């Protein structure tokens, strides 16, 4: 990582360009790591228990972690490694790669939100349907497409399992959520060590505009979730995936499950590498509270909008106001 860090910011202090306003920055207050966000064992033979655990976690936190998910360790590690290789390539080379293949690379200074740049390198590209999306993936490192492709096949499988468990828990018909999960985006981030984590952020507070998001957060903490107005840190569980409920499942559940705001803080010593996969509906899919959930006693709390419309006009609707770029709409 040395190479990467020195190319990024070889600085003793956080530059002005990356200093967030007082209201957005983490400050010096210690945030507790939360050991109460549920860790759910997908190998549990009692399916109804898994369903109940997922629903409870999604109501209380909007977040849970899954273990025994069946994604082989070497597939995960392979993807982490090839992404690390990509992020250590010279910036010019990455930018050239991105421009010629049509994927998005956001380096350390290219992405500003609320007047400050995020303390991260980041890339983004579609990853489902796989064969078609792959045409636009990085060609360098040369093994990128094979290795990330294998990871995405596994994440697709896992996403359908989790969506089915959620569908069951909400009393939706079989395949309800899986059927609309037609688009997936991969976002890989690299958060370099930071001389003063109190001033800046790896990722500003946001909601994910997905059905669900499946995150591999490696072995360094940094993700924080807003719960009852307080930030809590998500603990690292080796080889687990962090799953969160996106705004689209909150809408379909008519608010029964919640999409929680979250952010990423940096740390002084270590680089942190994460791979998030957004499991999204297609841009034209109409998302609305499911018919089987709403009735006279439980009227729809959300409008009926295509995913694309939602992402464009999400501001006026209830809690989804503090939104950044994670719409991941396939334009
Ligand atoms: C995201 C996200 C968390 C992380 O990309 O939307 O919340 O730890 N990522 O990188
Ligand atoms: Ni997010």
From TrEMBL:
Belongs to the iron/ascorbate-dependent oxidoreductase family. This is Fe2OG dioxygenase domain-containing protein. It holds the Pfam family DIOX_N. The keyword Oxidoreductase applies. PROSITE patterns: FE2OG_OXY. Coiled coil: none annotated. It comes from the Eukaryota. It comes from Rehmannia glutinosa (Chinese foxglove). Residues 179-281 form the Fe2OG dioxygenase domain. InterPro entries: DIOX_N, IPNS-like_FE2OG_OXY, IPNS-like_sf, Oxoglu/Fe-dep_dioxygenase_dom, Plant_2OG-oxidoreductases. Keywords: Iron, Metal-binding, Oxidoreductase.
């Amino acid at each position: 990582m040395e190479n990467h860090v020195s190319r990024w910011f070889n600085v003793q202090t956080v530059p002005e360009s990356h200093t967030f306003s007082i209201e957005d920055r983490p400050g010096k207050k210690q945030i507790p790591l939360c050991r109460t966000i549920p860790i759910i064992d997908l190998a549990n033979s009692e399916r109804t228990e898994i369903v109940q655990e997922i629903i409870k976690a999604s109501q209380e936190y909007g977040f849970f972690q899954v273990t025994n998910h069946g994604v082989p360790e070497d597939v995960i590690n392979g993807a982490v490694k090839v992404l690390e290789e990509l992020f250590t390539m010279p910036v010019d080379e990455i930018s050239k790669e991105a421009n010629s293949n049509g994927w998005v690379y956001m380096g350390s200074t290219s992405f500003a939100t609320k007047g400050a740049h995020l303390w991260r390198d980041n890339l983004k590209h579609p990853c489902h349907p796989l064969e078609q999306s792959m045409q636009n993936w990085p060609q360098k490192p040369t093994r990128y497409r094979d290795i990330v492709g294998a990871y995405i096949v596994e994440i697709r499988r896992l996403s359908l399992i989790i969506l089915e468990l959620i569908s069951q828990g909400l009393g939706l018909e079989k395949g309800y959520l899986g059927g609309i999960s037609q688009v997936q985006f991969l976002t890989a981030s690299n958060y370099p060590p930071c001389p003063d984590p109190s001033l800046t952020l790896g990722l500003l507070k946001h909601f994910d505009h997905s059905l669900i998001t499946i995150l591999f957060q490696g072995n360094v903490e940094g993700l924080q979730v807003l719960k009852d107005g307080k930030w809590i840190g998500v603990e690292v569980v080796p080889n687990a995936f962090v799953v969160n409920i996106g705004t689209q499942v909150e809408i379909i559940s008519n608010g029964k499950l919640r999409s929680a705001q979250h952010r990423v803080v940096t740390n002084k010593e270590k680089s942190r590498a994460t791979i998030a996969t957004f499991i999204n509906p297609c841009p034209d899919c109409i998302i609305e509270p499911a018919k089987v959930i709403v009735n006279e006693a439980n009227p729809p709390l959300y409008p009926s909008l295509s995913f694309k419309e939602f992402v464009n006009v999400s501001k006026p609707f209830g809690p989804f106001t503090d939104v950044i770029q994670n719409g991941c709409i396939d334009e």
